[in-house]
Write a structure and sequence with these properties.
The protein is mostly beta strands. It is built from one helix and 18 strands. A four-stranded antiparallel beta sheet has the order 4-5-6-7, with no helix packed on it.
């Protein structure tokens, strides 16, 4: 009798949880992330639900893709970062910011300049740039005003300029290699290949555009 009652209870519990998620699925988009489920109830209403279907986070206006165990979120018009346990890592107090945390850093804006915060909320790289992007394979794309126009370069995690901020554009691609050994830099609308180790150019002024294949090779 006890086992039968327990079995009936578990069936009711399972049906209850399933009914919650079926109801959500009709009106919302859901994305399972393990112990929690990200629910998009409307274009500007996101929240997390636990395994029992109960809401376990505040409402957010936007939630980015989880990367390295963190989410960039938007609340009351401001951006911040939470971790996979839904703890606030960086309070939602920034007007602009990257969509993901990458290599332990989040690129965001303060006082009209861009920099990087670590996951303690501390300034890892000063807010000195007109523009930046998330780190990728040890490097980050940054921009500054040079002679009245924005030019671009690459920095590493120590904020050392690996490629000087003087180029009209820089291209590097997601390929199968573990390191970025070279990039394509543009000047006067033409690209050349810059070796990051030797700082030497090849194929100088040969290309008006650069297109990559699926392995990162220029074609």
């Amino acid at each position: 009798m006890i086992l039968q009652n327990l079995e009936r209870y578990m069936k009711k519990k399972i049906c209850f949880v399933l009914s919650i998620f079926m109801t959500l699925a009709v009106n919302a988009q859901v994305e399972s992330t393990g112990d929690t489920t990200l629910v998009k109830e409307s274009p500007k209403k996101f929240y997390f639900a636990g395994k029992d279907g109960a809401k376990c986070s505040p409402d957010y206006e936007w939630v980015g893709t989880r990367n390295e165990g963190y989410y960039v979120v938007k609340q009351k018009g401001k951006l911040g970062v939470i971790d996979s346990l839904l703890n606030t890592v960086i309070p939602c107090s920034y007007d602009e910011g990257g969509k993901i945390v990458s290599e332990g850093l989040w690129n965001t804006m303060k006082d009209d300049f861009w920099g990087y915060l670590d996951m303690n909320g501390d300034e890892a790289i000063p807010f000195d740039y007109e523009f930046n992007r998330p780190f990728y394979k040890g490097y980050a794309y940054v921009g500054e005003l040079v002679g009245g126009k924005v030019c671009f370069g690459l920095i590493d995690h120590t904020n050392t300029l690996i490629v000087p901020v003087k180029w009209a554009n820089i291209l590097y691609t997601d390929d199968v290699s573990t390191d970025i050994n070279s990039v394509w830099v543009a000047k006067d609308s033409l690209y050349s290949r810059l070796d990051l180790k030797t700082n030497e150019h090849s194929y100088t002024s040969m290309f008006g555009t650069v297109v990559f294949d699926g392995k990162g090779n220029s074609i």
